Amino acid sequence: MLRDDFQAVRQRSLHLAAPLSNEDCCAQSMPDASPIKWHLAHTTWFFETFILEARERDFRPFHSAFRVLFNSYYNGVGAKHPRAQRGLLTRPSLDEVKAYRADVDARMLRLLEAEGGDAALAALVTLGLQHEQQHQELMLTDVKHLLAQNPIAPGYDGEGMAPDSPPGPLAFIDFDGGLVEIGFDGRGFCFDNELPRHRSYVAPFALASRLVTNGEYAAFIEAGGYRDPALWLAEGWDRVASGELAAPLYWRRQEDNSWREFTLHGEVPLDPARPVTHLSLYEADAYARWCGARLPTEAEWEFAARLASIEAGRLHPEAAAGQGLTQMFGACWQWTSSSYAPYPGYAPAPGAIGEYNGKFMVNQYVLRGSSCATPGGHARASYRNFFPAYARWQFTGIRLAR
Amino acid sequence: MLRDDFQAVRQRSLHLAAPLSNEDCCAQSMPDASPIKWHLAHTTWFFETFILEARERDFRPFHSAFRVLFNSYYNGVGAKHPRAQRGLLTRPSLDEVKAYRADVDARMLRLLEAEGGDAALAALVTLGLQHEQQHQELMLTDVKHLLAQNPIAPGYDGEGMAPDSPPGPLAFIDFDGGLVEIGFDGRGFCFDNELPRHRSYVAPFALASRLVTNGEYAAFIEAGGYRDPALWLAEGWDRVASGELAAPLYWRRQEDNSWREFTLHGEVPLDPARPVTHLSLYEADAYARWCGARLPTEAEWEFAARLASIEAGRLHPEAAAGQGLTQMFGACWQWTSSSYAPYPGYAPAPGAIGEYNGKFMVNQYVLRGSSCATPGGHARASYRNFFPAYARWQFTGIRLAR
Amino acid sequence: MLRDDFQAVRQRSLHLAAPLSNEDCCAQSMPDASPIKWHLAHTTWFFETFILEARERDFRPFHSAFRVLFNSYYNGVGAKHPRAQRGLLTRPSLDEVKAYRADVDARMLRLLEAEGGDAALAALVTLGLQHEQQHQELMLTDVKHLLAQNPIAPGYDGEGMAPDSPPGPLAFIDFDGGLVEIGFDGRGFCFDNELPRHRSYVAPFALASRLVTNGEYAAFIEAGGYRDPALWLAEGWDRVASGELAAPLYWRRQEDNSWREFTLHGEVPLDPARPVTHLSLYEADAYARWCGARLPTEAEWEFAARLASIEAGRLHPEAAAGQGLTQMFGACWQWTSSSYAPYPGYAPAPGAIGEYNGKFMVNQYVLRGSSCATPGGHARASYRNFFPAYARWQFTGIRLAR
Amino acid sequence: MLRDDFQAVRQRSLHLAAPLSNEDCCAQSMPDASPIKWHLAHTTWFFETFILEARERDFRPFHSAFRVLFNSYYNGVGAKHPRAQRGLLTRPSLDEVKAYRADVDARMLRLLEAEGGDAALAALVTLGLQHEQQHQELMLTDVKHLLAQNPIAPGYDGEGMAPDSPPGPLAFIDFDGGLVEIGFDGRGFCFDNELPRHRSYVAPFALASRLVTNGEYAAFIEAGGYRDPALWLAEGWDRVASGELAAPLYWRRQEDNSWREFTLHGEVPLDPARPVTHLSLYEADAYARWCGARLPTEAEWEFAARLASIEAGRLHPEAAAGQGLTQMFGACWQWTSSSYAPYPGYAPAPGAIGEYNGKFMVNQYVLRGSSCATPGGHARASYRNFFPAYARWQFTGIRLAR
């Protein structure tokens, strides 16, 4: 079964790259984003470096340069190619990277056959697959950013996108809180940053029944939301004043003053029914302040999320549908007001693998839920995603709290 | 009595500037620091703008340009002189700024005489005085930074500084925690960011009996602490790799490999008994990790601090003395692992005065306690100081936790 | 015959791209360099925009976006895609750009058939072909820079490169100078910056018989040439002190202290016999000062060059061979001490085409001769190449003067 | 007599500083400009380092740190304080620097008494005085730049400035040119960059009878001069497009669309009769192109200047008066199209003193004449001033040529 999972996840990465040309897979549009080809190689490197290198008899790397070339940030592994120059790696070619994948896959499957019952191996393989699923989401958000730089505005998927049905009014749902348990509850897989499960006091609160829509956010803009410093964190206002922030990342004002939005389906008229997405924490926070609300803490969000059903999306968030607490998963990652910090008693794994999460626990903020780009089966209530407050190229959205 | 406080605090600012020349008072060594003259003017501007302008009959500003010139960051007040160019304001002269102070003081005293019983006025005046005390600490840390840029290494105070007596060994003191009350308890003054008092769950923890010393930190350096990426947050390691971080801010390696330290008393041999100071959060965190400990959360710190006595220091932190929990106040501000965030239910004051704290609650970290440069009477257990993780020019130090 | 030239030059650009993958043709390694695909498109854009658009009946652009996308720097034509983002244009694909070339070529050939006798048209077509030849040289130097960023060090041409025979000793050849005529003499094609031919007084001078070799330049390095500020222009020394300049651009120091050089044939041991290349003006000037010589002025160089034979090279400069004044053409462009300035009475052409040369006549320096990457038939004695003093990615070398 | 010159020049520097406060003398408004106090110290350092250190028996420096602190750019002398941090040197105080001046002056006078007949000494002292005169001009332009940053717009001189009488129309005066002698003719002092005198061929040309006025330049702005890329060098247009260049440095547009100009006499209404000043080479070149003229070469300027009378100015350029070739000296430095390059056969002096001129001969442009801030007696026809093309804080102006 792990073997089946392995093949399914590995196959899906190639499937995501299928609509793209070799050139699309090679370019890098900013240091924060990586080329598709690099994602395909790095997720393979993870298995080769952390599993095959340790366990394969007579280990010989597929290519002597790849250990450095496709190391993302593991100082414990050694040197790494500079992040901002990943787009210059026109060699190895995409075909060579696919050959690299095939070779490592075959060796991994042989290893799984031979040592399948080994729990430590199974845990590492599972980590590798979860890691690859995280990169699958990045493949979509990174290539979206790349295609958005092109004046021709090519879509990742040529199907187009029709307007969605308007959602019902936004309501606030009350929660009691109290001294609650936060963190992974022990069923299935989790990353180390969801541990240890621990007690936290949560005062009574209310959470919005759905995400903020494009239509609601457009009203904020028209009302002068980007012109009133009183609505903004000081750092956010600096970015507004410099012109960096003036609307969500992929909104494009037309000459008739209407908006269009660049999506993975290409550029389309802004759909007022769908959730607003590709916002910084600064914008989410300013919007919340404008309407007399605030962002939730991650403990509040997690407490409420136990009631929510986990759904998967596809390429762009859909409008809310149904009653009660909706869109907790499968539409947009939801900014919280919680900085990314270790849970009480948190300890990273020893060795290079311990660099996975812990060393990033400063100056980032937690996002909860999942997005339309998150692979099916990857989300859970205790999941902690994290990005800097200024980051906008993920499918981020706004869940209000009070 | 408010009148006496007013005169005492206002007088102390001038007293702090007394050892300095007009040139010392005008220069600005980095955008984060301000000239002494600017501090003297801005603290006066606070009273003129937020009190006299609103309450003085036939209000006429002392100088028509000062409203913009000495506005620090209050967008609600209007335009402001660019922060990085405060050192270019050779006019008004120091004498003119002193005349500005004398004029505003006289008008404030007249107002206090006339409307002394007004509680809202008293609250604003008290806020203005607490504000000025914060700037008094900055006057010392800013001028220290300025003098440190000078190859001649001039001291602020010519008295010199003798080595202190070695402190006892560092011990850990256990605390039970539990569901505790955090935030201002209602006696005396507090800033709005200490409110509202609220419940928080604190798991059992231990806190170091004193701050980490120079001698202990030097051992960390000699052991290769700045060469091992496994000890560092990723952002911190980037700053180590770029050469920005290699030792505490004012340590200077000598040709014989010994250390000297620049202090407000000039450059002296590093005293191993005194607490290490002028560190970033990255360094404090790396040191803690190196010795198997961690930094406290602000709730842990505040819970423990209720037992501690509040003392004031003078120009440089002294070595720990005595038993139990020492150096909570009066030596160095202590980095916590808590990001600066609003307490549950926090609401800033309406209007420009509400920009005092709230808009800075992102990408900064809380420091607790007080330092040798904090004015007497200004500290309390619930006080929340905050700076970016990279900031080193304050008297910051390390309190370990477990 | 113009028709034949047209087909030959156009064909050669595709021939230069043939050894490269689609990914190689798309990436951009720095703002100064452009992707191969962009060169292929821009040289086509030149014909479409400056000729077809003006002369074709019922002109319809091949693609409505290309006019902006492939405009390099002609403000007179209108908007242009940002130079630093040319590498993000994964669309149009290389195949689409080849289709663009084929379409424009067919239309151009029809036009030439119809209006072949028109002298103005012939002049514009010739300019377009000379323009394309300039880009052919850039295709090689730009892709060399790209491949050099790759730790795998892939060659453009897999043939390898054998050491060349040592040249004879460097001699100085005397020239009388006098009141001489400088500039294009009227036979064949020239760019407008070679006009008008004019008188200039040249004092007696001597020119080195060949270019400086790798072996000679290595001796300069070993003698501490990069450590002595007295040898350097102040700007150059700033770049040495910052670490930017430490050896020619593509030299790589090995652990045994020997040098290897990255070439279009891949990385090879440094050949002491071949000319040193890929140097800034600062380095050329420092080397000349070190050996008691100087760089020539462009008038001196041109005066001497009338005696020299024009040869073409291939992918890497070869060692000098023969007697007298050698390597004036076909090895390395030769830095002169002359800033790029208009000749007395120079006037650019009216309209956008006048932006070709004139607007760059500030803060650049003239290079004379031609390089191993210059297309055959493109060089002449009056040719003025120009680059900023810091530029190193062209095949630049050192001709000494006294 | 040298002794009298010494005392007069040295005295004049103090005289220039007299209207300024200690704070005015300490601040630095940009890396290109230096504090007045630094100028006073550095010009003294020149005599101490290049003369007293070599010739004084039992030489003891006035202060051990000054050799580094007040070294401008002489690598041959050793380390130097970073240029951009000169404004942080609040110590030594202005009084200490004056004491330094008095001490070195006394020692210099003793030396002159003892060794007055020594020609080498006399040459060095003369160089030191000419050097100090250059800094006297910088004292005025640097403090003008500093005061201009202050929103209060304080004048250096409180006298005010009345409108001047309109000059006559601009005429062009013809010159024959020919094979002429350029460079210092041997009478009096010159800097090494004016040597050797050499032959140069100058084609017939015409020079404007006076400088371009504010009124004429304002017409260029109103006609859209800063909006038409066809008028600009590419580098200049980049600076226009980025907003850096929109009018001469100290022009300030009023709400009623009129102009005011910041001068050393404070801010005044723009006087259309006076010459336009504080322009970059890019602006001078664009203006010339706009009116169908060009900038002169330095050889043309020098050839013409032999007929001109040398006058001195005072704090701001005056309107042209009189017939023939006017304003060659004493109003504004005049941008030429000549890059700053060595004359044929130029050789700098050996040792650190040789760094005076030669190492700056790249990427700068020659300005000819003198300005209202140039000390009397310092100007001559062969004088070569030089600045980067973007520099605007000197009194630069436009002399047209054809």
UniProtKB/TrEMBL annotation, chains A, B, C, D:
The encoding gene: egtB
Matching NCBIfam families: egtB_TIGR03440 (TIGR03440)
Pfam families referenced in this protein's UniProt entry, alphabetically: DinB_2, FGE-sulfatase
Biochemical pathway: Amino-acid biosynthesis; ergothioneine biosynthesis
Domain DinB-like residue range list: 6-138
Keywords: Iron, Oxidoreductase
Residue intervals of the Sulfatase-modifying factor enzyme-like domain: 173-309, 322-402
UniProt cross-references to InterPro entries, sorted A to Z: CTDL_fold, DinB-like, DinB/YfiT-like, EgtB, Sulfatase_Mod_Factor_Kinase, SUMF_dom, SUMF_sf
Taxonomy, superkingdom: Bacteria
Protein name, entry field: Ergothioneine biosynthesis protein EgtB
